[in-house]
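User: For a teaching handout, I'd like to show students what a predicted protein-ligand complex looks like in token form. I'll give you the sequence and the SMILES for S-adenosylmethionine. Please answer with just the structure.
Assistant: Understood, here is the input followed by the structure.
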Amino acid sequence: MSDVPAGAPMNAVSGASNAVPGPSNAAGHVPVMLDQVRALLAPALDSADAVLVDATLGRAGHAAALLADHPGLRLIGIDADQVALDESARLLGPAMERVALVRAAYDQITAVLAELGRPSVQAVLFDLGVSSPQLDDPARGFSYARDAPLDMRMDRGRALTAAEVVNTYPAARLARVLSEYGEERFARRIADAVVRERAREPLTSTLRLAEIIKNSIPAPARRSGGNPAKRTFQALRIEVNDELGTLQRAMPAALDAIAVGGRIVVLAYHSLEDRIVKRALGSRSADTTPLGLPVQLAASRPQFRLLTSSARRPAEQEIAANPRAASARLRAAERVRAAA
Ligand SMILES: C[S@@+](CC[C@H](N)C(=O)[O-])C[C@H]1O[C@@H](n2cnc3c(N)ncnc32)[C@H](O)[C@@H]1O
């Protein structure tokens, strides 16, 4: 991708109008906590030449609304999934003249921005996890409710699939994945059942795996807490996509990229992700002057100010209209000082 001089349109592909479609179900994905994302990012996006990185573009639901709110705003949209980028280009229509789309993992944000010639930006948005179209596309293998090959890769160029994990990991390693990433109480029982079943025949389908999980959980535990396959599928998805490692690397890189006065908003969907976000924002928002020093060291002053003292949750009405928002946790911060 070529450098983008400040003020120039990015990736111009279509007409000159700034009109953008509003967020809608037509895109197959309803953007979560959209009003809060808009309000939290607005103060950073009105400056001339403002650039927003949407590090998880998806179907551009949040991005379309922010481009509509801020007519001068330019967007760098990152997604690991080429289908998401292609669909976003279509949905954004004429607004694409203010947009650069990049297929990359979001922990590559520093390299992506360097290549575009914009090492610092006014805002970064992360809306983590899987989009509704990815969940609903049976071919992707994310859903335990539809039969599909055990895939679960966000980036289909990567080698590791869910089938590889369930058919090759030793029982102890598989149990650790299910326990740590799925917080699954019956991780060892499920792992043992998977190992027994795969000795008969390799596991290739989501529904077969869901059945094995159901049968290895004690009957009383099956009656509460939703589908018993939910936690195992979450764990496999995290493992296949190295979601936690990628987020650990991405958070400091994203924070480094934000200019003074710029803002970051992160939507996480489970406690493991949220913990990483909370720590990353918290550590940059704390004074690190060693205890006992009589004066505050300039270099130790916080670089960020938390805009959310604790994670914000969606309103009941939003959850009723969009049950996939139910587990969302939103955190945000503003850069108040440049790096020393
Ligand atoms: C919840 S969706 C984002 C939805 C978007 N905010 C919208 O309103 O349409 C998350 C997106 O992040 C992408 N994604 C997940 N992990 C990624 C990674 N490590 N790097 C880049 N994109 C990733 C997924 O492919 C998916 O499209």
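For the handout, you might add this sentence: The pocket of S-adenosylmethionine is lined by residues 29, 31, 56, 58-62, 78-81, 84, 105-106, 127, 129, 131, 154, 241, 246 (CB under 6 Å).
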